[in-house]
Amino acid sequence: MLDLYHHRREGWLFSPSTPSYKNVLPDQGAGGHCWRREPETVALCLVALRALPEAACPLPPPGQLQPPAPRELALGYVVERKRMADLCSSIIDGRFREQKFRLHQCGLQHPIYLVEDSGTIQHLSLPESTLQQAVINTQVVDGFFVKRTRDVRESAAYLTVMTRHLDRLFGVSSRERSWGEPRESGTETLPPPISVIPPQAQTVREVFARQLMQVSGVSGDKAAAILERYSTPASLLAAYAACLSPQDKEMLLSNTKCGKLQRNLGPTLSKTLAQLYCTPGPLP
Amino acid sequence: MDCSCAIESQAVPCSISWKRQVGPSQVDDDSWVEEPNVLVLLRLEDFVSMEVQGTADCSEETLRSFAARVMEKTAGRTLALVVVGLEKYFRLEFLSHKLQSRKKLQSVVLSGSQAGGQGKPRKRKGKEAPISELSRVEVEEALVDLQLHAGVQVRVLESWKELGDLASSFTKAVAEAPFKREREKKGFSFYLESEWCRGAKVDRSGKGLAQVWKRQIQQFNRVSLEMAGAVVSKYPSPLLLAQAYRKGSSEQERQNMLADIPVRRGDGVTATTRRIGSELSRRIYLQMTSPNPDLSLDANG
DNA sequence: GAATGTGTGTCTATAAT
DNA sequence: GTTTAT
DNA sequence: ATAATAGACACACATT
């Protein structure tokens, strides 16, 4: 599955090698802006792009396997179009939070949530108040710009107007300007070039946390609490090895303070984890 | 619930803002902190007026200047605007064109839904196309302009009940925001990562731990089901693997201890060797033995 | 967290004078 | 050391 | 000889 997130993880986000997808709006020609449809977001996800001038686009070093420099510049405006029905399903199966997270994580400065079918809020598998709250949360908690739209036609109109304004804001006149420098008539700044964001490397701590959470009952807070004391598998194993009796192993983590203010992990999970890390032979 | 509501004179008229009692302990201490959100109700007549001013380039107040003024007073807080009754305005204005009794109807809607509404004649340049359509486009223009230049969101409502609901929802969101933000900052990001399976159930005696152990191996990047199975098959418990590492003599030996474990592959011919490989072997070794929690497993060196 | 409901387990106080 | 009642 | 129990209360997990 290729989507924004995976593109980012593979380090190819916004690189010219990213396959081109059908533009929802026609290209404005050289120097104009377009909304590129990113693949795989079932609900439409658009990224404002502009072709980079040749001069600002050095050729990649020959014979390198590294991703070439971007030939396009992401303007930092990204629109996630979401119909009410889709939003509804996304909330139910948990995809909603994930999508918001990725949108915030993809690094663009102006994420926009385009909520379509604002009038068709009823007769869905979720109460109206619930959906309203979800949209408000998207705006207030996640800090996204939320645009409500009655239907596809309004959405298209919105994107059209948006494109026109972007053209006026980041037009050819500001092409030679250096990135980040304020424009003449306003506080607008050109977004910094977003080229290649390297995939985030896994650390021992992170993997250890994920491993702890493989046992039912161990959640983020619990894992974090354990990590607080034994931040690495080696240190935990060493602590178990230092125990004199099997009982001590079982109770080693029992009094680990978790979450809010210092709630015990408890003997149950402590015993399970001790079994996991202290069983000499094959596990049951 | 330990919250209260008060109607007081605000720096910005018709605005809602939120304060939270922070500070650890002091009772008397009115160390209230303003939440970084402001909700401002914009009277329909004012909104229309500003939108008109923006269309014609008068020097009077525009939506943008209004927003700038408000944001100046609220010192960098996130501003959200609310307008009530715009759709009804469109409808009546359209109707008034057909019936040629425009001013009267306008005055009806404005005084009926707003306090002290006054008619506002509009001058338009050029076309005679449906005026309500043009107005909608112009409003859209103004909203986008506001979005791009001020980052201000405008919520258009049609009834005062909706405004009440919005205030309620907004209040709830603002109240919960700090709590949720803290969880995002501290908690692990992979909680919501794409495909996250929650913990495997394990009964009191320890059945299911084998599955846990296998899934622990799968927590590494780029590890397939078959690879994890192969490793777990060779070392059926974490302790056995750790002991094997302890027995190894050289760093190289320990690092490559798992490299040659055979792994079942797809039916077809595969160019790559059907082994765990030295890279994954090394990552697992580092994970199990390194004393440094911040060590990067993907770094080459 | 969307909202609400279900089950595990910890936690806190427990009598009578 | 294993069983009992509060 | 030793200690328990109910209930509130959270939290992890499962549903309309």
From TrEMBL, chain A:
Q: Which Pfam families match?
A: EME1-MUS81_C, ERCC4
Q: Which GO terms describe its biological process?
A: DNA catabolic process; double-strand break repair via break-induced replication; mitotic intra-S DNA damage checkpoint signaling; osteoblast proliferation; replication fork processing; resolution of meiotic recombination intermediates; resolution of mitotic recombination intermediates; response to intra-S DNA damage checkpoint signaling
What InterPro entries does the record tag this protein with?
A: EME1/EME2_C, ERCC4_domain, Mus81, Restrct_endonuc-II-like, XPF_nuclease_Mus81
Q: Which cofactor does it need?
A: Mg(2+)
- Per the record, GO CC terms? chromosome, telomeric region; Holliday junction resolvase complex; nuclear replication fork
Q: What is its main location?
A: nucleus
Q: Tell me a Gene Ontology molecular-function term this record carries.
A: metal ion binding
Q: What is its EC number?
A: 3.1.22.-
Query: Which keywords appear in this protein's UniProt record, sorted alphabetically?
Result: DNA damage, DNA recombination, DNA repair, Endonuclease, Hydrolase, Magnesium, Metal-binding, Nuclease, Nucleus
State where the protein is found. Nucleus
Q: Gene3D superfamilies recorded for this chain?
A: 3.40.50.10130, Crossover junction endonuclease EME1, DNA-binding domain
Q: Known CDD domains for this protein?
A: XPF_nuclease_Mus81
Annotated ERCC4 domain residues: 23-119
Q: Identify the enzyme class.
A: hydrolase
Assigned protein family: Belongs to the XPF family.
Quaternary state and partners of this protein?
Answer: Interacts with EME1.
Q: So what does this one do? A: Interacts with EME1 to form a DNA structure-specific endonuclease with substrate preference for branched DNA structures with a 5'-end at the branch nick. Typical substrates include 3'-flap structures, D-loops, replication forks and nicked Holliday junctions. May be required in mitosis for the processing of stalled or collapsed replication fork intermediates. May be required in meiosis for the repair of meiosis-specific double strand breaks subsequent to single-end invasion (SEI).
This one is known as Crossover junction endonuclease MUS81
Q: What is the lineage of its organism?
A: Eukaryota, Metazoa, Chordata, Craniata, Vertebrata
Automatic annotation (TrEMBL), chain B:
Q: Quick check: keyword DNA repair in the entry?
A: yes
The molecular function GO annotations come to: crossover junction DNA endonuclease activity; DNA binding
Q: What is one GO biological process annotated to this record?
A: resolution of mitotic recombination intermediates
Transmembrane residue ranges: none
Q: Do you know which Gene3D superfamilies this protein is assigned to? A: 3.40.50.10130, Crossover junction endonuclease EME1, DNA-binding domain
Q: Name one GO cellular component term.
A: Holliday junction resolvase complex
Q: Which domain of life is it from?
A: Eukaryota
* Record key words, sorted: DNA damage, DNA recombination, DNA repair, Nucleus
Domain ERCC4: where? 1-246
Q: Pfam families attached here?
A: EME1-MUS81_C, ERCC4
Instruction: Note down the stretches annotated as region Disordered.
Output: 110-131
Record-linked InterPro entries: EME1/EME2_C, ERCC4_domain, Mms4/EME1/EME2
Task: List the subcellular locations.
Answer: Nucleus
Q: What protein family does this chain belong to?
A: Belongs to the EME1/MMS4 family.
Do you know which PANTHER family this protein is assigned to?
CROSSOVER JUNCTION ENDONUCLEASE EME1, EME1 PROTEIN
How is this protein named in the record? Essential meiotic structure-specific endonuclease 1
Instruction: Tell me the classification of the organism that encodes this protein.
Output: Eukaryota, Metazoa, Chordata, Craniata, Vertebrata
Q: Which gene encodes it?
A: EME1
